[in-house]
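Supplementary Text 2. Reproducibility record for the structural model of the 165-residue chain.

All settings were left at their defaults, and a single model was retained for analysis rather than an ensemble. We include the record here because the model underlies the residue-level annotations in Supplementary Table 4.
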Amino acid sequence: MERANRLPEDPTELEQLLMRGASTVRQVEAAERLVLRVPQLRAWLIERGFLAVRRQGDFVYASTYFEEAVDAAVEILRGGHQALADTGLTMSGFSVLGVAANLSGQVQNSLRYAAHTIDDDDAKLVAEAVLYALGYMDATVDVHGNEVDGWGPNSLAYEERLENL
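Retained model, structure tokens:
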């Protein structure tokens, strides 16, 4: 395998190349789709060369080097949250990277350590990626359980359980 040309600027074309590289492995497809849908994460990965076009003979595809990206982000984070932010990656983006890396199978980490730093917009994308990986490829997710104030039925039940402790 060799590196091919530069990444296409058109997100649709990039997605096609990523899906070609991940083809038939739903979990990897979900991971690649997730990083594409979080603009600051996608930009961070591209700027650092962790998302690349590859060539194997006549077969051209793209892939994300999740293990290397997570290692680099963790090393930057050793300097603190601001050091990470200075590179253009928020804590939410970092957590999304961890989820995507886990879905891809390249990194084994716990969702529990990432979940509390994922913002609402990214949480919706993460939930959709997990559902996609499970085979629910057309799922739609409402992170607020269709409730106007943000507390859905599961949240209300959780609060009730806490009150009864």
